[in-house]
């Protein structure tokens, strides 16, 4: 909150300085640099400009003032008069400002005859107006609403507006909603790895069904399989929360680096492993699947997440065989050939699937 208020005050100072009529090219360059430094700077400045436009008649009122005291007070009174109208339009105003925030260029206005006196008082009034109009939108309105998805057999890394990065696994989808108060991502399907930018004032929450994974600045993955969830933490600490069941709150689980949490209808199971081992669970980002004494049925299911041509286990004996090693998820055929060479497995290759049975 304090940081956001400071940004608003700085934006108001820039606006007042620009409107004063003394605006050299060096000042414009400084403003451009400040605006380019952060999305929050641009949003604050654009919102103040919009509030300034709502109070456009301040200049006329100041020019008609009968004396110096009235001239100083009129802009402030006018700003409060405009507040009632602007409040009704605040959501639309904020949305319109946001849509233009990254595309606008800021040019100085021509100085008026009385520009040396009224803009500073007016800027102060606009800043007060922005507090009334803008804080709620800044903290609860969306700065970014985006949807990202990957096709089967594809992965993708996307940059989010807050500086975080998300890597989507095969056939995955996330819905992103970032605001001034919170950062929310819904994992609609599949798996995603998050490299979260540190921001203690805005927790980063990944929601998946009845579960929510909350972090401030850390590295972790979330995988959704129907009602089941898997969380792997490779750096920092995250908090795993669950929705109340039958009106009863559920316990919160803290997951430090090296934690692998499996959450399902029967609760949450957490396993602590060395960070190096936890990182193997997210090697899919580099094109690999890593198995360590893994049942063949489970290994086949992992390959099936990345390919339309499925590996089908024909009998229980084949499914219980144990496999190990690093394999490229894009080359299931090579995995099958190695199985046939090293294990009592026979493969039947069909156009849409490969059937594995014990021999």
UniProtKB/TrEMBL annotation:
It comes from the Bacteria. GO terms for molecular function: kinase activity; sigma factor antagonist activity. The keyword Kinase applies. Gene3D superfamilies: 2.60.120.1440, 3.55.50.30. It holds the Pfam family FecR. The keyword Cell membrane does not apply. Residues 147-239 form the FecR protein domain. The chain crosses the membrane at residues 118-138. InterPro entries: FecR (IPR006860), Ferrdict_sens_TM (IPR012373). This is Two-component system sensor histidine kinase.
